[in-house]
Amino acid sequence: MKELKGICCALCTPFSEDGERVDEAALRRHIDSMIEAGIHIILVCGGTGEFAYLRPEERRRIAEIAGQHIDGRTGFMVQTSAINTADAIEYAKHAEGVGADALLILPPYFEGPDADGVYDHYESIAKAVKVPLMPYNIPIHSGFDITPGFFKRLMQIDTIRHIKDSTADITRIQHLLAVGAKVFNGGDPNAFFALVAGCPGCVWGAPNAMPREAVALYDLVAAEKFVEARDLWRQMFPSNLFFWNHVYNASVKAATNLSGRPVGPCRKPVRPLTAEQMAELKERLMPLGIG
User: Fold this and answer.
1) Which of 91, 122, 164, 182 is flagged as catalytic?
2) pLDDT greater than 70 at residue 237
3) From CA 108, how far away is CA 212, in angstroms rounded?
4) Where exactly are the structural domains of the chain?
5) Is the distance from CB of 88 to CB of 82 less than 8 angstroms?
6) pTM for this entry
7) In the annotation, is 136 catalytic?
8) Which of 91, 122, 136, 218 is catalytic?
9) Residue 127 designated active-site
10) Superfamily of segment(s) 6-288
């Protein structure tokens, strides 16, 4: 079992220019770009991968391509959420079968169950696969908040020790760490502070556009070179704040395309950035020499 730590890039799913076809060649190139930059873990079919807009067969195909192409060169995660437990187990077994080192899983969303039902959901998936599960807490979208108290309960399940927390609440992150969680920060504007607080890593969309900077930030904090890390973060923060305050996937894809890593547009109905927004994003990326 691979240790889960470092920068996990929540990989963009490259699409054709009309957004209707997964560009498999671009997917492989983008994976190579992340590995060459030193990214520690690649996550496919996450929120930044537009999983909510992917057809079931596309989700499986992307996982298959990623597993084959990564081929052990870096860590590999698949987001395998589904509203009902049977579908979530099916996605989980498939991801395990194509080589995933861990699975990122939301609580059941939209008209979801109570806390006992959420616990049963994770427990059922854990019994079906051997790889670690990383619950994904983003209550603004899932409708269920995995609190520190509830996560402590989830840790009764042997394969749950990690959580991706996207509340962008540094107090929440510290509370999770205090109950023994291995927290991967998912709130872009908090990346530096979460690493300093003791998070073993980040699951993050921004590394699609700035993988070397993200890895360097992690390395500097790990080496306790906090002043250098802070100075790098000051260059990264403007664009990360932009991502957080605008339509996220459209912003990250725009930045990734500007960085010379073509990933195409988002799938409709997500619209591209306006000309005014694009101009602001380019300005925010200037400290990093992107665009």
Assistant:
1) 164
2) yes
3) 34
4) 6-288
5) yes
6) 0.97
7) yes
8) 136
9) no
10) Aldolase class I (3.20.20.70)
